Amino acid sequence: MIELSQIEKVYDSPSGPVPALKGINLRIERGEIYGIIGLSGAGKSTLIRCINMLERPTKGKVIVDGKDMTAMNERELRQARKNIGMIFQHFNLLSSATVYDNIAFPLRLVHMDEKEVRAKVEPLLELVSLKEKAQQYPSQLSGGQKQRVGIARALASEPKVLLCDEATSALDPQTTKAILELIRDINQKLALTVVVITHEMQVIRDICDKVAVIENGVIAEEGSVLEVFTNPREPITKEFISVQMSNELPAAFRGGEISQEPVAGRPLLVRLTFIGESADDPVIAGLIKNSNAEISILFGNIDQIKNTPYGRMIIGITGQPADIEQALAYLQQRDLRIEVIGYVARHDRAAS
Amino acid sequence: MSPDMTALLLKALGETVRMVVIAMLAASVIGIPLGVLLVTTARHQILECVPFNRILAGVVNAVRSIPFIILMVAIIPVTRLIVGTSIGTTAAMVPLTIAAIPFIGRQVETSLREVPEGIIEAALSMGASPLQIIWHVYLPEAMPGIISQLTTVIIGLVGASAMAGAIGGGGLGDLAIRYGYQRFRPEVMLATVIVLIILVQVVQFAGNTIARRLNKK
Fold this sequence. Notes:
The complex is a heterodimer of chains A (352) and B (217).
Chain A: E1 2-13, E2 16-28, E3 33-37, H1 44-51, E4 59-64, E5 67-68, H2 74-81, E6 84-88, H3 99-109, H4 114-127, H5 143-155, E7 161-165, H6 173-189, E8 193-198, H7 201-207, E9 210-215, E10 218-224, H8 225-230, H9 235-244, E11 258-259, E12 268-275, H10 283-290, E13 294-305, E14 308-318, H11 321-333, E15 337-344, H12 348-351
Chain B: H1 3-40, H2 50-64, H3 68-74, H4 76-83, H5 89-113, H6 117-125, H7 130-161, H8 172-181, H9 186-214
Helix pairs in contact in B: 1-5, 1-7, 1-8, 2-5, 4-5, 5-7, 6-7, 7-9, 8-9
């Protein structure tokens, strides 16, 4: 649906040219929710604006729905943009127009007659649950309601693509959740391709199918959300994920000395990750049955990545070295990811 | 005050109102598009054309730097060309209009600049043309500000019209100078000043009310 190849963008500044994007390649399939995450200044806003050519790339090609956006003149571009809806962090509604007129705006741009406008706007008001607010002005709405108007407006011209530029960054957590649900709903109902720009990993986790991590104008890592979440390769990705879910050791072990060789009295700490089906697998029960080592659960948590259950657990294994080996061997046979942290000293007991 | 004095005062008020209203209307026809161009042809704007923008800004500044009393006499040939005479109320409207155009242009420019860039960007993302953005985004969004700014221009014109007496334009200012000052009749002076104060108050009140009604922020 969307194909970016070798996108470069250089801004001129008084102190010389500043590269914002340095050769970006992306492929976004029809119907997908694709997340692009990065810190501020990483180039993600520029990147999303290259898709609808609000920013013209210095080099490279942008293809949306089979059409080369980079080869279009202004008139063709305006036509093509009607196929690409966009919503914004600060909503960008007309303050002088009512909710109804804001949603009708893109329709009136194409001189649609008022009867047809009404026939299109009313179902949209329904879709974003703002029927009662139709005659109010944006200043009378909450942030979440404003973004709903933004979404309805973006959908009015029946686009095939929806671009979301930090669409939930100005909203509180509950409103964010509701807006994300709405985006996911319309993605499914309308088979819309959605591109989401964000700096919050939670947004990616909740609604995206795929994710690209952008850093300093290049894509550092890319893949399915599940893959990237469970097996991050780049430091920047790990950082984003650790903000979202604590990857640290339980307090009692944090900062304790770690040894890879067995040390008497210290448990071997192992981090287990269960994805999808394996989250239902009775691994711990099996482990206890199949080894003589003692197992203690130090941390456990189960999350959802989009619709896939995703569990993480840290266990401590104590016992004879042979028993520990046996326990590890058992774990390695199961359908899960294990990471051996080491023999970690507990430090809270020493203090007491 | 004698009845003939009241008649003079009313006639002068009529002349002032006529000069200001007609000059204001004529100047708005050119000044509002001028303000739009000052904003939209600037760097990174929807009709970006930086050299044109610089020239326009230069001309605006040049006209604005000429004191009105000098402008009035300096353009007498132009006035004669346009209205066929260089004296009287009608003749005074020409310099008033010319002085008001760049004034309106700058005031409209200021209001339009306050329209958040994000709204323009949103309109672009929906495939709006530059003309549609001006008509459906810039002007309605900036309208409360434009009304307030135009109110200021009208009051400025009331002040400038007092100098119209220099070319026989009449009006309240002229009455105050000729009767109040030159014929030593302070009561005439006082009466004109009071009428001017009321006039300005009415204009300001009307401007504020309209701007407030239009403001949905």
